[in-house]
């Protein structure tokens, strides 16, 4: 079985009509034997548009490819509350779920994720209150419904992930884990001359999530996005970390390596070959 992942497609920000690419993407899946496709967040700046996109794409693909998705911070900006994100029921929604991949000893475990400021630069000497005030003043996430503090929200994420990993590991299989936010400091770039960005790194993810994943031997692969730069696969103690988000193809923020969405999509697709039992 071949499982493919994409993150940070940003169809609306990139001024793209997703359905224009359905046929070409379906052909690519067929040609490369991909039967499961997981979207790792930031499809649209509106959760309802993301759900409609997933429904439309799954309808186009039929039974040839099974879609799953989680929400990134951009998907959370509009069209959904925190409570709805936590309780939403949909066959493709992978948040806080364990999905066994048929005919294999692998399971998908997904979580939208969050952050707790533990990836901020060492020695920056900022308090949690200072990061929170900065976020509310400057960051898109200030529009996201959140009845909890960022630390409390991340605590809930960790409880969910811990439970889901235990469930998947108990079944004796290997785990493909996907969330939107960054789990390890290895992927952050810190710049002393860019105080705005150094503040933003606090909102990128959680070192505590990385520690939990590293302490779970059943985790085979971790896929995430959020940072709009691309990294080679990182192997740490037998675990594979994949991070090649598609990102923005805009004049004001050009992050692509070509001028064609489909080319970028193919180049950033993360594929894992899963052995059958």
Shape: globular
The percent of residues in helical segments reads 25-40%
The CATH superfamily is known as Metallo-dependent phosphatases
**Number of helical regions:** 8
What summary fits the major beta sheet? 6 strands, mixed
State the name of the first-level CATH class: Alpha Beta
Order of strands across the widest beta sheet? 4-5-6-7-9-8
End-to-end Cα distance: 10 Å
Domain Calcineurin-like phosphoesterase: 1-229
Protein name: Calcineurin-like phosphoesterase domain-containing protein
GO molecular function: hydrolase activity
InterPro entries: Calcineurin-like_PHP, Metallo-depent_PP-like, Phosphoesterase_putative
Features:
277 residues, alpha/beta, Purple Acid Phosphatase, chain A, domain 2, six-stranded mixed sheet, globular, Phosphoesterase_putative, hydrolase activity, Calcineurin-like phosphoesterase domain-containing protein
């Amino acid at each position: 079985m071949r499982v493919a992942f994409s993150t940070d497609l940003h169809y609306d920000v990139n001024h793209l009509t997703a359905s224009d690419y359905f046929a070409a993407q379906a052909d690519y899946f067929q040609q490369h034997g991909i039967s499961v496709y997981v979207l790792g967040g930031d499809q649209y700046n509106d959760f309802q548009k993301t759900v409609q996109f997933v429904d439309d794409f799954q309808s186009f693909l039929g039974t040839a490819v099974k879609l799953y998705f989680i929400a990134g911070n951009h998907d959370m900006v509009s069209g959904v509350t925190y409570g709805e994100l936590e309780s939403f029921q949909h066959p493709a929604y992978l948040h806080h779920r364990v999905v066994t991949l048929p005919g294999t000893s692998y399971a998908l475990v997904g979580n939208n994720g969050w952050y707790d400021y533990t990836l901020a630069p060492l020695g920056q000497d900022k308090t949690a209150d200072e990061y929170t005030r900065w976020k509310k003043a400057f960051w898109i996430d200030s529009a996201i419904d959140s009845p909890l503090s960022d630390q409390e929200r991340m605590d809930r994420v960790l409880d969910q992930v811990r439970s889901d990993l235990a469930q998947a590991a108990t079944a004796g299989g290997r785990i493909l884990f996907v969330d939107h936010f960054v789990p390890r400091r290895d992927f952050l770039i810190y710049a002393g001359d860019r105080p705005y960005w150094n503040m933003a790194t606090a909102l990128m993810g959680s070192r505590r999530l990385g520690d939990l994943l590293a302490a779970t031997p059943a985790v085979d692969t971790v896929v995430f996005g959020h940072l709009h730069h691309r990294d080679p696969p990182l192997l740490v103690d037998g675990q594979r970390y994949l991070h090649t988000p598609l990102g923005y193809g805009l004049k004001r923020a050009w992050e692509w390596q070509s001028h064609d969405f489909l080319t970028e999509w193919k180049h950033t697709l993360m594929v894992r070959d899963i052995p059958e039992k």
